[in-house]
Amino acid sequence: MNDENAGSRTLLLVMSIIALFVWAFLFYTEIAHGMVERDPPPVPQKLYHYAETIADKHNIDFDWFYRLVEAESGWKLYLPGGDGGKAYGLCQIHINTARSWGGVKGSDSAIAKRLLDPRKNLHTCAHILRYLLDIYNGNKLFATLAFNAGTAHVRYVRAVVMEE
């Protein structure tokens, strides 16, 4: 019975990872090929322009950055994390992610407070995305998947789906 449950859990994990990969691929394809027109920003113009500036500063494609924020929070400033409240702000960043990939220092409460500031959240997200783009040689698909699911999932998908 335990082997059967383990097999079911493994299958569920594999299916979840493949679903994340497909989502990331479709998300990236939409952006890369201009299949979806961007609506007017649902946020104050000042914040929209700040996002453009920060994307430019980190040498990140703004359309990709914009869509990632849209996918994470719908540009809602204080959306509670869909993961039980562990992710914060516009880009739905976890404290440990901000600390390890975003270069943010401090206590958990200080980092959470920082991530609730829309400008600081965007800056941290751009920093993380730049880091991921560098790791994956500019591959937005893998960077998106890593941002959403973690680098271990990218390694798994590459090992299972891609020939290296």
Query: Would you identify the regions where 5 or more consecutive residues have pLDDT less than 50?
Result: none
Q: Strand sequence of the main sheet, in spatial order?
A: 1-2
Q: List the secondary-structure elements in sequence, H or E.
A: HHHEEHHHHH
Q: Any idea of the CATH class? A: Mainly Alpha
Q: Determine the CATH topology.
A: Lysozyme
CATH architecture: Orthogonal Bundle
Largest sheet: 2 strands, antiparallel
Helix count from the secondary structure assignment: 8
Domains, number? 1
Proportion of residues in β-strands? under 5%
Give the overall shape, derived from the CA principal axes. Answer: globular
Radius of gyration: 17 Å
Count of strand segments? 2
Spatial gap, N to C terminus: 36 Å
Overall pLDDT level: 81
Structural class: mainly alpha
Residue share in helix: 55-70%
SSE blueprint:
Elements: H1 2-32, H2 45-57, H3 62-73, E1 87-88, E2 93-94, H4 95-100, H5 108-116, H6 118-135, H7 140-149, H8 151-161
Antiparallel strand pairs: 1-2
Helix pairs in contact: 1-3, 1-7, 2-6, 6-7, 7-8
